[in-house]
Write a structure and sequence with these properties.
Layout (H helix, E strand, L loop, with lengths): L2 H6 L23 H7 L17 E2 L13 E11 L7 E3 L2 E5 L6 E5 L5 E6 L21 E3 L2 E5 L4 E6 L5 E6 L14 E3 L2 E4 L11 E6 L5 E6 L4 H4 L46 H4 L23 E3 L4 E5 L20 E6 L5 E6 L14 E6 L2 E7 L4 E6 L5 E6 L7 E4 L6 E3 L10 E5 L13 E2 L6 E6 L1 E7 L13 E7 L6 E7 L4 E8 L8 E3 L3 E5 L4 E6 L5 E6 L9 E5 L2 E8 L3 H9 L10 H4 L12 E8 L1
């Protein structure tokens, strides 16, 4: 099997008190105007509804007393197969729907039986699909300034007139010829559009970029590693927690001690700080290796959040390149890092590296959810590495770091004082060593599928994967524009024999409140409503609603294909609707879509998810499924 094959295959307020939405999209919804749109529960104006990424709606016409009357209101076939991630937007009377590659966009008239008002069909080279990691997905659109923003897979960022679909401007963000692509949803904060970069498995040095909403000019760009000037590290970076800017938590002993692991148990007082240019210094490149931070990965393909009062943008970076960690000793900063940056300048106020010297592809691109409790301004992140984190979002102080499930074994705990994982050396990976029983697997205990936070129950609702893996690092030579993976993995169900579930989580206590097991990973994003309903989809074609307090199943409906999309809700003419995209894919469904059968195909997905064929006999056709009472 070639490396390319391995990579590719890799919504109490009732609606009767809400007036109908009759206006067309606002022409200049940026800044405070956009924030006002996000606070209107009749609409869904951002990928996760609002700046905070809570995935929460106050709509409650659909509730626990009438949920049994929920039925299909209408559906829309996209005409595209592969993984349908993300969710549509609803602005005024128009719904905007996106697809995977080739990233078609449809504007549907909710006043006229979902008539297609306009459509946009990008012209992209088909070969772009071959370098997209983990299926040819796109995680959604954003809206602002009377425009719909699409980040195409081929690296082109497009601004479309929201009323007509005409192209207003476009800009080239990434070049696929180098292995750099895009799968992320765009986000609009104030007067800027945010996007990122995929390509960690091609040795791309990735970044976050902010473009001016009016004309597409570049406002600023911050790399994931490199010099402080490249990463936009400010003079007061990590001022409240200088230990996070320690030179290194990595103990380089002949490339890493295979018996005891690679992390040194520093005390806070022993850490060296402050240091500069850690994006270079913590890549302890051996003489035999020609490439270090320059080809360091750190992709940015997840979700962004924003606090208007603090004027800070939050996001996470992904895995360092290459998967063979032996050839890149050191912490490999600032891969695997949560950053908080000033929106206007891009200057990083704080950053925290969750998995120094990542050895398992535990990308940290998952969403950061902003919330308040006990007078604290908080940010919570559920990382692929199996730990749930809560920070003081003002300065990055780590308040909670706890295992989301007992089966997590690569580290025993996270030291809250230093932020350093206490690694179990038995699960450290090394070249030509097949390390077995690592939990979670590379897909993480949770991948990009976003969790939700209920302002009513004060709990998080987290979709989970429950897989472990065997991991063998191998030699891989860097060639620009070619896959650079450096590991072969197989994945399988975790200790209790299931492959996933949905969990309710207390973000202050770092504790699971309830956990519903599912046959397969829950690879779709979650919706929470004020009626204490939690909506989510499953890979085996179910769209479900459960009780937010107990997890009890209240309703389910089968859709045409497995769900990797995010549940959303909106209101139109006094009626609440709940919607979900179906169309199996993503890392979990890539092997099914491509007909891959070897256990390690699709970076281990073929073996782990082979039973999906019983539920999705053919590649998933994409559709939007909309439900109402």
């Amino acid at each position: 099997m070639t490396l390319l094959k391995n990579l590719v295959a890799i919504f109490a307020i009732t609606l009767c008190s809400i007036s109908p939405v009759n206006a067309a999209p606002a022409d200049h919804a940026s800044g405070d105007a956009l924030q006002h749109l996000m606070q209107d529960d009749q609409q869904w104006a951002s990928p996760r509804k609002d700046y905070s990424n809570q995935g929460y709606s106050k709509l409650s016409q659909i509730n626990q007393d009438n949920i049994n009357r929920l039925h299909v209101a209408w559906s829309f076939a996209t005409g595209v197969t592969r993984g349908h991630e993300g969710s549509p937007l609803v602005i005024g009377n128009i719904m905007y729907v996106h697809t995977p590659f080739p990233n078609n966009v449809y504007a549907l008239d909710l006043n006229n039986n979902q008539k297609i008002l306009w459509s946009y069909f990008p012209k992209q080279e088909p070969l772009v699909q071959a370098i997209l990691c983990c299926d040819s997905v796109n995680r959604g659109l954003s809206y602002g300034d009377g425009k719909i923003f699409l980040q195409q897979n081929d690296g082109v960022l497009i601004a479309l007139d929201a009323n007509t679909g005409e192209k207003v401007w476009h800009v080239k963000v990434n070049d696929p010829k180098t292995g750099a692509t895009n799968t992320n949803a765009t986000y609009v904060f104030k007067d800027k559009v945010f996007t990122g970069c995929s390509g960690g498995e091609f040795g791309i040095r990735c970044f976050i970029a902010a473009y001016n909403i009016h004309d597409g000019s570049l406002a600023w760009k911050a790399y994931s590693m490199g010099s402080d000037s490249d990463v936009l590290i400010g003079a007061d970076f990590n001022h409240a927690n200088p230990q996070y800017s320690a030179l290194s938590a990595y103990e380089n002993v002949n490339g890493g001690n295979k018996e005891n692991g690679s992390f040194k148990a520093f005390t806070k007082d022993q850490l060296k700080f402050p240091e500069t240019d850690l994006g270079i210094k913590t890549w302890l490149k051996p003489q035999a290796v020609k490439h270090g931070w320059e080809t360091g990965g750190g992709p940015v393909w997840g979700w962004f959040s924003y606090d208007p009062k603090l004027n800070l943008v939050y996001y996470g970076t992904g895995n360092p390149s290459v998967w063979n960690a032996d050839v890149r000793p050191g912490d490999n900063k600032w891969a695997m890092t949560i950053f908080a940056r000033d929106l206007d300048t891009g200057i990083a106020k704080w950053g925290y590296q969750l998995t120094p010297h990542d050895e398992w592809d535990y990308d940290s691109v998952n969403e950061i959810i902003l919330w308040n409790a006990e007078g604290k301004q908080l940010a919570t992140h559920f990382d692929r590495n199996g730990f749930g984190y809560t920070f003081d979002r003002r300065d990055g102080t780590l308040l909670v770091a706890a295992k989301m499930h007992p089966f997590v074994n690569w580290a025993t705990s996270i030291d809250l004082a230093t932020g350093i994982p206490q690694k179990d050396g038995r699960y450290s990976t090394h070249q030509e060593v097949n390390v077995q029983g690592i939990c979670p697997a590379a897909v993480g205990i949770k991948d990009e599928q976003p969790a939700a936070y209920s302002q009513h129950t004060k709990l998080f609702y987290v979709p989970l994967n429950h897989l472990c893996m065997n991991y063998e690092s191998v030699e891989a030579k860097y060639v620009s524009g070619q896959p650079w993976v450096g590991a072969s993995i197989t994945m399988y169900p975790g200790p209790d024999g299931v492959m996933g579930g949905l969990m309710a989580w207390d973000g202050l206590k770092g504790k699971s409140i309830w956990y519903n097991k599912e046959t397969f990973s829950v690879w779709g994003g979650v919706l929470a409503t004020s009626a204490d309903l939690i909506f989510y989809g499953t890979l085996d074609r179910w769209f479900k609603a459960v009780d937010a307090k107990t997890g009890k199943l209240l309703w389910q409906s089968q859709v045409g294909s497995g769900v990797v999309g995010n549940a959303m809700t909106y209101a139109h003419h006094g009626k609440q609707y709940v919607a979900i995209l179906s169309g199996i894919g993503g890392w979990a469904g890539i092997a099914l879509n491509l007909g891959l059968t070897e256990e390690s195909d699709g970076a281990g997905a073929a073996g782990a998810y082979k039973a999906l064929g019983q539920y999705n006999a053919a590649p998933g056709g994409g559709a939007l499924n909309v439900f109402s009472l």
